Amino acid sequence: MCIDEFPADDAADLPLNTDPASAPGVTAFNDLIRKLKCTSALAAGRLKRREYLRKYSASPRGKAVIQAYTERNRAKRNAYNKMRYARMRGELVNPGQCSACGGSNKVEAHHDDYAKPLAVRWLCRACHKTWHKLNGKALNG
User: What is residue 107's predicted lDDT score, i.e. its pLDDT?
Assistant: First the structure.
């Protein structure tokens, strides 16, 4: 809900000139702020694309495309699945920081060699793209 759409009687409850960190009702204040924030067009676009991909992957053509990709990239899929299960079991932990630049913006697991599925390098999206531009595909891929 955008601030313009927020009902006037609820907006009157907003504590004006109050520092949220020192106010007694910090949780209520934060909840109210969350209500006032608008959903961005970018987030709406992501939701629309996610819904489209969900429907497409359930369609016969989508299933065929996914199956063909899986067969062409068997080693990559196996390495990804083993890495994912190791993360679920707690054997492999995402450090939350890029090993190349030190940034903490959505770190991804990168396999240098798909034959070693638990030997991953944690890279942010930008460094991951750069790595593949410079080095091409991973081994056994």
Answer: 93
